[in-house]
UniProtKB/TrEMBL annotation:
The keyword Methyltransferase does not apply. Thiol-specific peroxidase that catalyzes the reduction of hydrogen peroxide and organic hydroperoxides to water and alcohols, respectively. Plays a role in cell protection against oxidative stress by detoxifying peroxides. Belongs to the peroxiredoxin family. AhpC/Prx1 subfamily. This is Peroxiredoxin. The lineage of its organism: Bacteria, Bacillati, Actinomycetota, Actinomycetes, Micrococcales. The keyword Ligase does not apply. Keywords: Oxidoreductase. Residues 1-125 form the Thioredoxin domain. Coiled coil: none annotated. Gene3D superfamilies: Glutaredoxin. It holds the Pfam family AhpC-TSA. It comes from Paeniglutamicibacter psychrophenolicus. PROSITE patterns: THIOREDOXIN_2.
Length: 125
């Protein structure tokens, strides 16, 4: 694998219960992913200042990106935005060499399984 790959992890909102536990789980495996040259980038519609506070409090070692304005534009471009709730859906994209290698999602109330991330990573080998 040449350049670094990354998981673009859309989630509804910072500070919410399911999102928090899901992102904490990603933090626990971050080094495992980094050893395979895969970076994690979380994306929500929260403001960058809220995300900075959230990342600092939770001690996340990966980036949280703000899709705040235009509201949800990035999530929308990936088909990962719920227009009724005004939030990103729970959708993940593995991107490598400028293309989407894999994508998966879960219902809004359910965290994505770490096993599913590992399945996606195996597509890179």
């Amino acid at each position: 694998m040449g350049e670094q790959a990354y998981f673009l992890v859309f989630y509804p909102f910072a500070f919410s219960a399911v999102c928090g536990s899901e992102l904490e789980e990603l933090e626990e495996v971050r080094e495992e992913f980094a050893a395979r040259n895969i970076r994690i980038m979380g994306v929500s519609v929260d403001h960058k200042y809220a995300l900075r506070t959230y990342a600092d409090q939770a001690r996340f070692g990966f980036d949280l990106l703000a899709d705040f304005w235009p509201h949800g534009a990035v999530a929308s471009s990936y088909g990962a935005f719920n227009f009724e709730s005004g939030a990103a859906t729970r959708h993940t994209f593995l991107i490598a060499e400028g293309r989407v290698v894999d994508s998966f999602s879960s219902p809004i109330h359910q965290a994505r399984a770490i096993a599913r991330y590992r399945e996606a990573m195996d597509l890179l080998t």
